[in-house]
Amino acid sequence: MTGPLNHLAGEKSPYLLQHAGNPVDWHPWGEEAFEKARREEKPIFLSIGYSTCHWCHVMEHESFENAGIAAILNADFVSIKVDREERPDVDRVYMSFVQATTGGGGWPMSVFLTPELEPFTGGTYFPPVDMPGRPGFPSILRQIAALWKTDRQRVLDQGGHILAALRQHTASGEGAMPGGDVFHAAFRQIAHGFDPELGGFGGAPKFPRPVTMNFLCRLFARDGEGDGRRALEMNLLTLRKMAEGGMHDQLGGGFHRYSVDRYWHIPHFEKMLYDQALLACSYLDAFQITRQPLWESVARDILEYVRREMTGGEGGFYSAEDADSQFEHGKPGRGEGAFYVWTREEIHRLLGEEEANVFDRYFGVEPEGNAPPGSDPHGEFTGKNTLIQRHAIAEEDVRRSLARSREKLLAARASRPRPGLDDKVITAWNGLMISAFARAAQVLDDAGFLESARRAALFLETHLYKDGALLRSYREGPGKTAGFADDYAFLIQGLLDLYEASFEMRWLQWAIRLQEKQDELFLDKTFGGYFGVTGDDPRILLRMKEDYDGAEPSPNSVAALNLLRLAQFTGDVAYGERAKKTIAAFGEQLHRMPGAMPQMLVALDFALSKPFQIVIAGDPGALLREVHRHYVPNKVLMGPDAGRKWLAENMEAAAYVCRDFTCQSPTDDPAKLGELLGRPRQE
After folding, report:
1. Any long-range contacts for 55-61 (C-beta under 8 Å, 24+ apart)?
2. Least CB-packed of 1, 48, 150, 580 within 10 Å?
3. Beta strands in 57-183 (DSSP E)
4. What distance in Å separates the CA atoms of residue 51 and residue 85, rounded to the nearest whole number?
């Protein structure tokens, strides 16, 4: 439904623009809406989501396009819509409130605020009508409006008490850096939730969580036997089952957000940039450790998908593709996964019986659809097949047949209505993707991937770096929101990886400048660690330090490792001290729940090790290829310009391997270089 445009019509965010024609009188987050709430003495209804969120679409269609519900909102509330990807600072404050008061969270997030922006009640998705044991959205609105009019002081007091409790919970304090015993404690926590049959951690829904895989690989590198061996086995099983499942787009490449079942079969069909970046790195790690072609193939599959579908003309990477799409061009009706699923009849019509029968066997196609029991409670996939790899492919004639079939189906799929594309370029997520392409350029010896990383970095430098500081996002021009701690941390990581892949000093120098700015804006100089926001905006009621490594790593975990790497690149011990203080700031959390911070454990592993400093002088070809054959996570790799901080001015053409400020004799022999690195690898 589209009517007269509301106050979102002038925004750039695809998510906000999706709601610009709603009958709800939406406002963007800003002083105009806040002043209206104060002037009219109305509570604020804050709705937070993102453009590719399936349940956000559902609530929009059911409630925000409903004229009756819109009338209640317009009469009794000031309604504000926020894109969580543009404003993660707003999202984190109110998500903390919803999680603390309801025990859960997610999007769409629905929160009711006082005109002073203090939350007093909230939740996530609300149905449009009353259901058994669950009031509908109109009933909730009427109850809150009545309470606001008859017992406002109680509402104000409740908001103030909850906010005070949240402030107390997020207060900083002194901490101590853990020792190595925390690695095995974390492994035990993670292993407790491991699915030994199907991989992954926990039951349905199953999320990939690459930060956990990062830690498990580091544990293997740290201890190749015992827990380290089990950690690698858990990782490889999870990666294989994910690659075979429907969460992996078997035709077009890339991964969907998560699996609704424990089998990795039926996904939530949106595709997020950060998932592609982090999973590509997980598969690259597996390839370095094992040299098995499967892992290289999946990593390339992800990266080629991003280059083809999620890269702008100037090289910046787009944010996401939607879970939902139209069933047919020019006809009403949308559904989750409509672009991706198939009937058996469609497949046989396109391929012919002989090739279709082969395809059916290997990709799990069934006449009545292949959704496993319990994975399709609303019957959306009745008669539909989500492609999964049922059998290993050995025979060459079968391989050729399946390749032809995939090409035909991919071409047919291209004629379907595509899912919506959120073409925002987010600085933080681009930083993660730069890392993935830069690492792939090294591990897979692919200059094209290096060029993708370089173009994205140039895009960010040109469009999202102004007056020495970062901006959060770009769409049809730079956004107005300043960068947050994750924008700085993730981009610095990307630039360090890009320097190691190219030896271009400009990227290392820019990373150093950004680290100085991150310290200036976000560093807790008293207790260590980084706040997510600057503290300059009084409308952001909580200044939190993120600690949880979830779908994205915490900016503190990434910043700690960045600082440790910078100490090795530059020889400046102050970086290392700042890193250790950052880790120590989360010492209590690491002792209590180390499995919740696996990426911080990666930084701790680096801090407790003696990292390699590897300097390549002269023609790097064969020597670099040998370095990249080995999984050696605790290292920095330098060209001769940066390497002069470690070595004499006149370096001969060779590789120099140093540890703890002591360098081995230079070598130009790749085999000798491999011996010096001496790290575990599975052939």
Report:
1. 55/106, 55/107, 55/108, 55/124, 55/125, 56/15, 56/107, 56/108, 57/324, 57/334, 58/125, 59/108, 59/125, 59/126, 59/137, 60/18, 60/19, 60/22
2. 150
3. 78-83, 109-113, 119-123
4. 9
Output the pLDDT for position 373: 87
Please compute, for residue 171, the number of CA atoms within 13 A of its CA located in the half-sphere on the CB side. Answer: 8
Under 8 Å between Cβ of 485 and 431: no
Residue 656, burial from CB neighbour count under 10 angstroms (0-12, 13-18, 19+): buried
Q: Which two tokens stand for residue 371?
A: 């959704």
Per-residue model confidence as pLDDT tens digits over 22-36: 999 999 999 999 999
CA-wise closest residue to 218 among 604, 510, 653: 604
Instruction: Provide the pLDDT for residue 503.
Output: 94
Residue 425, phi then psi, degrees to nearest 5: -105, 110
**Residue 442 token pair:** 């090294």
Name the one residue in this structure whose structure tokens are 């690695």. 183
User: What are 275-290's pLDDT values in tens digits?
Assistant: 999 999 999 999 999 9
User: At 568, phi and psi to the nearest 5?
Assistant: -75, -40
Report H helices in 223-331: 227-244, 273-290, 293-309
- Write the burial class of residue 348 (CB in 10 Å: 0-12 exposed, 13-18 middle, 19+ buried): middle
Exposure of 442 by Cβ count < 10 A (0-12 exposed, 13-18 middle, 19+ buried)?
Answer: buried
pLDDT for 1 equals 46
pLDDT, mean of each 10-residue run, the chain (683 residues): 80 96 97 97 97 92 96 98 96 93 92 94 94 91 95 86 83 85 96 96 92 97 92 97 97 96 95 98 97 97 98 98 90 90 97 96 95 86 95 85 95 96 98 98 97 98 98 96 98 98 97 98 96 93 92 97 96 96 95 96 96 86 90 93 68 83 85 80 39
Q: Which of 556, 569, 561, 452 is nearest to 510 (CA)?
A: 569
Please give the torsion angle defined by the CA atoms of residues 565, 86, 476 and 471, in that order, rounded to the nearest 10 degrees: -40
Who contacts 279 (Cβ-Cβ below 8 Å, separation ≥6)? 208, 210, 242, 255, 302
**Among candidate residues 373, 395, 351, 145, the one with its CA nearest the CA of residue 265:** 373
Per-residue confidence (pLDDT) for residue 619, from 0 to 100: 72
CA-based radius of gyration for the chain: 26
Check residue 391 and give its pLDDT: 86
- In the chain, the amino acid numbered 35 is E
* Tens-digit pLDDT profile for residues 605-664: 999 999 999 999 877 788 999 999 999 999 999 998 877 666 656 667 789 898 877 888
Report the alpha-carbon distance of residue 358 to residue 395 in Å, rounded: 12
CB burial class (10 A; 0-12, 13-18, 19+) of residue 211? buried
Helices (H) and strands (E) in the chain, counts: 26, 20
C-alpha–C-alpha distance, residues 25 and 439, integer Å: 46
CA distance 290 to 630: 10
Any idea what DSSP says for residue 60? Answer: I
How many CA within 13 A on the CB side of residue 422?
30
Place of tokens 């061996």: 229
Q: Which pLDDT does position 647 carry in this prediction?
A: 67
Q: Which helix (DSSP H) or strand (DSSP E) does residue 635 occupy?
A: strand 635-638
Provide the token pair at 259: 């699996």
**Cα–Cα distance for residue pair 560/583, rounded to 1 Å:** 7
